[in-house]
Amino acid sequence: MREKIAKVEKAGFLFCRVGVMVLVWVAFFLKLPELVLLSFIILFISALAGVNRAPMILLWRYTFGFFSKQKTEVLNIRAMRFAHSLGAILSGLCVVFLYAGLTKLGWVLTGIFALLKTISALGFCPASKLYTCMANGGCCALTTRKGKRTC
User: Fold this and answer.
1) How far apart are CA 120 and CA 39, in angstroms?
2) How much is the pTM?
3) Going by C-beta distance under 8 Å and a sequence separation of 6 or more, which residues neighbour residue 6?
4) Is residue 98 a part of any domain in this protein?
5) Contact indicator for 37, 95 with CB cutoff of 8 Å
């Protein structure tokens, strides 16, 4: 399968990762379900639009991105769409629990989601890596296709 790539501003991609992480942590500590809903909306739109037209990337590009020439980062569009989709699903579950009256479960799940977003914000995107492993036939010697190493 041929990879589709997108070039986005490095600083814009960092702004996106850190921005959503901060949003989720603020929601968790201040117990604001509206911010969890906002993170769901951002991730859902990002999954639909693609990483190069993700809301946080566009926000960066049309505000702070005007002020300086940015280095770009090459991203796998499918891997990022998969990661944004998983993030939207997880944040969507948080929203459902929070608004359905299962607030304790909703906040526990939001805390787990915040931890995952922190790992992603640090550049170790587990969902993107999971997609890459699946697309390459696996990530270890037991699951890779014959003759194709991914590690």
Assistant:
1) 14
2) 0.80
3) 50, 51, 52, 74, 75, 77, 80
4) yes
5) yes
Single-letter amino acid, residue 133? C
pLDDT digits (tens, 9 = 90+) for 2-19: 668 778 888 888 888 899
Does residue 43 lie in a domain region? yes
Find the length of the chain: 151
The answer to whether 87 touches 42, Cβ cutoff 8 Å, is: no
| Amino acid at residue number 70 | Q
Classified as helix, coil or strand, 145 is coil
Q: How far apart are CA 81 and CA 95, in angstroms?
A: 20
Residue 120 belongs to domain spanning: 5-135
Return d(Cα 118, Cα 63) in angstroms, integer.
24
In the chain, DSSP finds a helix count (H) and a strand count (E) of: 6, 2
Maximum separation of any 2 CA atoms in the chain, in Å: 51
CA distances from 68 to 37, 86, 108 (A): 32, 32, 40
Q: How many domains does the chain have?
A: 1
* Res. 142: pLDDT tops 70: no
The β-bridge partners of 72 are 9
- Spatial contact of 18 and 78, defined as CB atoms under 8 Å apart: no
